[in-house]
Structure prediction request, 466 residues.
Amino acid sequence: MSFDFDYLLTQWPALLDGLWMTLQVSALSILLSLLIGVLGAGIKLFRLPGLTQLVALYVELIRNTPILVQLFFIFYGLPAVGLKLSLYWSGVLCLSLWAGAYQIENLRGGLATVDKGLREAGAALSLSSRQFFRLIAIPIAFRVSLPAMLNTAISLLKNSAYLQTIGLAELTFVAVDRIATDFRAIEMFTAICVIYLALVAVLALLAGRLEAHLQRPFQQ
Amino acid sequence: MPDTPIVRIDGLNKWYGPFHALKDVSLQVAAGERLVICGPSGSGKSTLIRCINALEPFLNGRLEVAGIRLDERPASISRVREHVGMVFQHFHLFPHMSVADNCALAPVHVLGLDRRTARERAMRQLAKLRIADKADRYPAQLSGGQQQRVAIARALCLEPKVMLFDEPTSALDPEMVGEVLDSMVTLAESGMTMLVVTHEMGFARQVADRVVFMDGGAIVESAVPEHFFAHARSERAQQFLSKIIH
Prediction:
């Protein structure tokens, strides 16, 4: 049995559907994970009582358990306590929570590089702590944390393949589903590998653009 | 001295752990007055001016700026800060923002001006500091002296009643000290109330209405510059002067 390109052409529409789902779920989850990252890092920076401990617990839980277990917990576990989410939202919630924990730590690293003097300068200008965080600390931290944040985003994109285990029709699901009927494993896995590589390349390109933009003020 | 002082400090005390950083400091500054505060390092001079805009909390005593009593309530702190501008030794410009945006930031987000009005105000102040041509540059692209002048413009954009300077020229290369001091002289001539922590005694002679000498967390002497330089009363001040005036 040789590599059959013609077979791939016939499967192209199905793969595109899967790609579209992967894109949607990943893009939305990347955005939500960044939001979680900013909120969590802010809570830690200002040491908000109670919430700081909660954030620390969340980060530990996510980092020290397998993502597959987290996904099953959300999709199979939560309905038992009355929280039943659709396939789509279970996937988004899982990926966002997973990556959010890492984004908190990534941003925390960036925030640690923000000069304490800038906080005093902000205070002397009558800016509130929240304004300082939003207008000064986060933009500066983003630039420093961007490479780490990109890594997390790439991992999120790759981890979206886990969502096939609960039956969400994303890229890997489509491939596995087709292989079950057509037995064209090498064609299908090659195809989705190439697609994942392309997606990561696009993501890295976008991050590179953003980094160049954020880097501009710091060039002599 | 004119009617009510714009800064009134009564019996201020501050500790860092067991270290008594400010000892019963009392000081009154009239509107328009220019004060130079000097003294050996660790004498509490920076701590004192940092108390005036609540960058440092104090333990007891009374501090009033423009008739507003400073206490630990956020509302009182932010009201006082709106009247008090501060210039730091290390400039602390926001590195990710252009010079104009550094200056327009507080007018937009604190005073609520629209962006255009804030930008115009920023450009006016930058022009006064003769650095308007750098408005669209970023801090990293400027020299230390230029950055410090931008920092002065940024503080002035809130139209403060009092300006605090915490060793504004100590971090500068020697050839840049002059341009910053010139800007401060111009500001002084415009009638701004200024409290300046500095070792630039030439500036003190030229501009100051009063020199305040601190040592060990207390004000030891307070006199007009001619008097202070010619006949410092305390031995500690005489020693200090002999070390910094060559």
Summary: The interface with chain A takes residues 53-55, 78, 81-82, 84-86, 88, 90, 92-98, 105-106, 109-110, 138-141, 151, 154-155, 158 of chain B (CB under 8 Å). The mean pLDDT of chain B is 93. Residues 79 and 189 of chain B are 26 Å apart (CA to CA). The longest strand of chain B covers residues 19-29.
